[in-house]
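call fold(seq) -> tokens
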Amino acid sequence: MNIKAMITDILQQIDSIKSILDGYCPVIIPPVRRSDYISALQKTNRGDLNTLRVLILSIVYEEMKALRKLVERLIR
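ret:
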């Protein structure tokens, strides 16, 4: 890894920590949704914030449903 990539990685990690401290939870983009995420980021750069919001909310919703199923299985 070159120095520029290392610095970029460190800055991204600092930004992630700042977001967590500001009250935002981390969201992991599943590999199957990566192209949707990149497309949403591109739209965000053109001023369309809604596409990224909807994508992140849909990912969080799906994860919450999976977590609920897991908890239900554990308490049976």
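The chain has one domain: 3-75.
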